[in-house]
Amino acid sequence: MPDQRRIAPLARDTMAYVLAGGRGSRLKEMTDNRAKPAVYFGGKTRIIDFALSNAINSGIRRIGVATQYKAHSLIRHLQNGWNFLRPGRNESFDILPASQRVSEDQWYSGTADAVYQNIDIIEDHAPRYIVILAGDHIYKMDYEIMLQSHVDSGADVTVGCLEVPRMEAVGFGVMHVDESYKITDFVEKPKDPPAIPGRPDTALASMGIYVFETRFLMDQLRRDAADPTSSRDFGKDIIPHIVKHGSAYAHRFNKSVVRSAYEPDTEAYWRDVGTIEAYWQANIDLTDVVPPLDIYDRDWPIWTYAEIVPPAKFVHDEDGRRGMAISSLVSGDCIISGGSLNRSLLFTGVRQHSYSVLDHAVVLPGCQIGRNARITKAVIDRGVQIPDGLVIGEDPELDATRFRRTENGICLVTKAMIDRLNY
């Protein structure tokens, strides 16, 4: 008699556990007051919405989110935007802040510990499988396909992997695999990354996505918690131990990536927007005529908190004072009042005043762009009021003294930086 569980989608018997406690220090001042997963992205979403939306779209209806660093804005977003799951429909959504549940002096000490400290909650839901996810990457992926691959291989753990040029893998955890993609070694940030068999210029880099049978993972977490030498981390401790003593397989991202139905030949898009330049570029990518990440795909929507706001508005039609946007994304409640923008992305509630120009700018919610301001290649943090006539992006030396400027000339502008200008 066939296993009845295998007839239904595996996602129905799965819990997604999202690790969302990290600061993301490479984003500098952008994460002074919020965790990296809570950083705004794409006009109206937050970074964490991508992992959560992938889970929902894959059919997973039990979700836990572990938070830690400056989690208030993240928790508020989750409460506002992700409160539609209902226990009465065998669904659940647990927000799991670090709360010293194991001991009075212990917060989450690593990614594995962030799961271990909530074993009782996971076991109460009793999922047969669990998918461990990082909450700070931008991508679209069908986890059901990865779950099926895990079951078919009989693996103890299946690790989601990116195929990357071999020498670009030096900053990742890298899988050494055999011809069947069984992992034979796991190397953290190697200077000479191992190649995929038969493909000497390509390596498999870990995405921080893991699939386990829940019971097996709980046993591994308890074993690891009893080891005084462990750093309580999946990449450093749990996965290498299973590779050595059990069965671990790599699942290639291009096998389960969700591409646009209209552009099926686009790249397998995955981004770690963990630096100011990477964050800026991934947002600006969305202004392409055919962006590599399709946020307009109704078959795989990115769910988020939907604010009730009026539509965007463009006003004035005079020479030099024309409200207009070219190849840009403009969110609701924005008013472009006699200003212009090109290849830019405005989040909710931005006000751009007359004669101002935005070029390749990412402007977060609630910002004011003053008259005659000119801004090029910049990220403007939430609620910043750009003074009249301020110029950003044209004088590299001056920008570097006033703002956070990257090697490639992207400026991050925050309220504190504007306050120091003494306008």
From TrEMBL:
Pathway involvement of the protein, from the record: Glycan biosynthesis; glycogen biosynthesis
Key words, A-Z: ATP-binding, Carbohydrate metabolism, Glycogen biosynthesis, Glycogen metabolism, Nucleotide-binding, Nucleotidyltransferase, Transferase
Catalytic activity: alpha-D-glucose 1-phosphate + ATP + H(+) = ADP-alpha-D-glucose + diphosphate
CDD domains: ADP_Glucose_PP, LbH_G1P_AT_C
Gene Ontology biological process: glycogen biosynthetic process
EC number in record: 2.7.7.27
Keyword Nucleotide-binding: yes
Pfam families: Hexapep_GlmU (PF24894), NTP_transferase (PF00483)
Domain Nucleotidyl transferase: from-to ranges: 17-287
EC top class named in words: transferase
Database matches in PANTHER family: GLUCOSE-1-PHOSPHATE ADENYLYLTRANSFERASE, GLUCOSE-1-PHOSPHATE ADENYLYLTRANSFERASE-RELATED
Protein role: Involved in the biosynthesis of ADP-glucose, a building block required for the elongation reactions to produce glycogen. Catalyzes the reaction between ATP and alpha-D-glucose 1-phosphate (G1P) to produce pyrophosphate and ADP-Glc.
Oligomeric form and interacting partners: Homotetramer.
Family the UniProt entry places it in: Belongs to the bacterial/plant glucose-1-phosphate adenylyltransferase family.
Name of the featured protein: Glucose-1-phosphate adenylyltransferase
Organism field: Fulvimarina manganoxydans
